[in-house]
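User: I'm curious whether this sequence folds into something compact or stays loose and floppy. Could you predict its structure so I can see for myself?
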Amino acid sequence: MSEEFTDLPLVTFKTLKNTELGALAVERTEDGGIVLRDVLKKVTESMLTSYPPTWLGKWTPNRAALRYSQDEIAGRDFKQFDGGQALDEAALLALVK
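Assistant: Here's the prediction. I'll summarize afterward.
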């Protein structure tokens, strides 16, 4: 299996289309928004036409980063990957490095 499947996200979140993504890092922007770096997507059954079955459930690279304004942070259903604890904006920002 490729090494790209060894990363696990720090946080998971939902897009507006309800797709679950993960991110390895969270950064704060000067205007109060956030940038999610090294975004990952979990291989689902519907993706198995593009991926081998052994990759089902693995996190794969999706994009370099996503930026959300402060207004867009709400409703993204942020969770800590390790344990699944829901994260409000303050808890999410506490993960900023």
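Summary: The mean pLDDT is 89. DSSP finds two helices and five strands in the chain.
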